[in-house]
């Protein structure tokens, strides 16, 4: 008996279909829970915080000073992990304040140069 073209194209149905279920466990990343590869006490970056406050961006610099003071406070309390987090925050604020200050200086210089050349 000859099959029609439609009957030839269909594959045979799968009768024995089993689904294997595997168990997956997700563990938190070590970098989120502990500060590995960090030895000693974290830097408080107070000098850079003051410099950013005076020369670049006072608003962000004050936040960096408070974060630097928090590093010292947490180290005195013995909370090394919290001190590292506060140190990271101080570094972040120092970098942000410096970049904002540099951007403001560049804009002021650009506008001053533009004003001189247009007059």
UniProtKB/TrEMBL annotation:
This protein's name: Proline rich transmembrane protein 1B
Primary location: membrane
InterPro entries xref list: CD225/Dispanin (IPR051423), CD225/Dispanin_fam (IPR007593)
Compartments it resides in: Membrane
Family membership: Belongs to the CD225/Dispanin family.
Keywords: Membrane, Transmembrane, Transmembrane helix
A single Gene Ontology CC term: membrane
Residue stretches spanning the membrane: 45-69, 89-114
């Amino acid at each position: 008996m000859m099959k029609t073209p439609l009957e030839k194209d269909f594959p045979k149905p799968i009768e024995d279909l089993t689904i294997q279920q595997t168990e997956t466990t997700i563990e938190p990343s070590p970098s989120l829970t502990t500060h590995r590869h960090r030895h000693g006490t974290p830097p408080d970056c107070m000098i850079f915080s003051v410099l950013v406050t005076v020369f670049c961006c006072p608003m962000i610099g004050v936040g960096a000073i408070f974060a630097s003071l928090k590093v010292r406070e947490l180290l005195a309390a013995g909370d090394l992990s919290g001190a590292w987090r506060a140190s990271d925050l101080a570094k972040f604020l120092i970098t942000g304040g410096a970049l904002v200050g540099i951007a403001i200086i560049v804009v002021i210089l650009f506008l001053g140069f533009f004003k001189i050349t247009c007059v």
